[in-house]
Amino acid sequence: MPTMAGRGDFDLAGLRGEFPIFAAQGPRFHYLDNAATGQICRAAAEALIDFETRARANVKRGVYRLADEATRAFEEARARIAGYIGAREAAEVVITSGTTHALNLAAHCLCARLRPGDEILLTTAEHHSNIVPWQLAGARVGATIRAIPLQTDGRLDLDRLADLLSARTRVIAATHCSNVTGAITDIGRLAEAARSVGAVLVVDGAQRAPHGPLDVQALGCDLYALSGHKLFAATGAGALWIRSDLAQELPPFLGGGEMIRRVSIESSTFAPPPHRFEAGTPPIGAALALGAAAAWLSGLDWEAIHAHEQRLLERLLAGLKAIPGVRLLGPEGTQARAPLVSFVVDGIHPHDVCQLLDTFGVCTRGGHHCAQPLHEALGVEASVRASIALYNDEADIEALLDGLEEVVRRLA
Ligand code: PLP
């Protein structure tokens, strides 16, 4: 098992041991599809199983001991997520089913602030879940969508902000990290732009959150979305952070149980945030798992993990550049970039590349990665993506590079 030789404070074997999948799958398992979903950590898996098998009850309604315990555990999970992202208070964290739900919630609720002719500024680098909800919202209120384009290196061209902003810009919605190129967005610059025109800044943090704790307040955004399954927790729960003063003024998203203050047949009044945004039974077990993952991740040595991820990324980039016929998409360097890389192989469809890599025990993703506008801007239909997480090791990268060399030798 690889260790970080010369870096005694970082025990990669120990870290991998916290992810049950590696013992279950054995040594010929090289999981490099972390941008699609991360593997569950032991703390999260145990929290989920414990709730479902020992402590299961609905939350926010029962008065018996088990229900009270479940409610307290749910609120504790909210506080743990708040801690991981640097929220001022736990009540700013809304439990959702994931980033897609969170961004739909944001777009729906922010509609209340939009008027016909207003503008929503997106970026060309967005995942479809940070495009389509805004199109739906825009169509509902008659608002127009604009998008920040890419530079030639695949990063966002933020110098175009001045041309794209207007007094009608009410919302800026941007990814913190591209799920195709790994490029990290300068959120500070977008926050400044949003402030200059009185717009709200919504950030899609799905790909940034798995690479270390955050400080949403320092980022200067107003809403921040993430998915638990990408953050080494269970599928089914995520979170939306909403700055508290903004949350107070937003209307609900879904209507139903536990989000109200009073209901009559004619009308309803609503609970304060975050409950106003959590209609019905939430994904309780998955939320507890997310809280457990957030607490566990908060205690790790992220300086060492960043250095480790960056070393793997450097090796991956160098190795890919050395294989004939492989073309990288987006930035070529490691600066301001999460450890994920997309590429195309001349003459071989990305799906074929991924299927063949699977025969070497390497899991990668092929397709448009729910980012068709970005692929179009980069001049390709689809790509292969390899995405690194904290538990990956040199053997994973070498298996991918060796497998790819063999694929190219056989097919190109
Ligand atoms: N945003 C980004 C940048 C993503 O990479 C993804 C998923 O791949 C999503 C949003 C959607 O996340 P989920 O499917 O967990 O809702």
Write the topology of this structure.
Layout (H helix, E strand, L loop, with lengths): L11 H6 L2 H6 L4 E2 L10 H13 L10 H21 L7 E4 L2 H12 L8 E5 L8 H10 L2 E5 L12 H4 L4 E7 L11 H11 L2 E5 L11 H4 L3 E5 L10 E5 L1 H6 L10 E4 L4 E3 L13 H15 L3 H20 L4 E4 L10 E6 L4 H9 L3 E2 L1 E3 L4 H7 L4 E5 L6 H18 L1
Parallel strand pairs: 1-13, 3-4, 3-5, 5-6, 6-7
Antiparallel strand pairs: 2-8, 7-8, 9-10, 11-12, 12-15, 14-15
The chain binds pyridoxal-5'-phosphate.
Brief summary of the model shown:
Helices cover 39% and strands 16% of the residues.
Tags for this model:
about 400 residues, alpha/beta, Aspartate Aminotransferase, domain 1, 2 domains, four-stranded antiparallel β-sheet, 15 helices, 15 strands, binds pyridoxal-5'-phosphate
Could you explain the architecture of this structure?
- This protein has 412 residues and is α/β, with parallel strands linked by helices.
- It has 2 domains: 7-31 and 301-411, Aspartate Aminotransferase, domain 1; 46-298, Aspartate Aminotransferase, domain 2 (3-Layer(aba) Sandwich), CATH 3.40.640.
- 39% of the residues lie in helices and 16% in strands.
- The protein has 15 helices and 15 strands.
- The chain has helices at 12-17, 20-25, 42-54, 65-85, 99-110, 132-141, 161-164, 187-197, 216-219, 244-249, 284-298, 302-321, 350-358, 372-378, 394-411; strands at residues 30-31, 93-96, 119-123, 144-148, 169-175, 200-204, 223-227, 238-242, 260-263, 268-270, 326-329, 340-345, 362-363, 365-367, 383-387.
- The strands form 4 sheets. It has a 7-stranded mixed β-sheet with strand order 2-8-7-6-5-3-4, with helices on both faces. The chain has a 4-stranded antiparallel β-sheet with strand order 11-12-15-14, with helices on one face.
- The chain is globular.
- Residues 1-8 have low confidence and may be disordered.
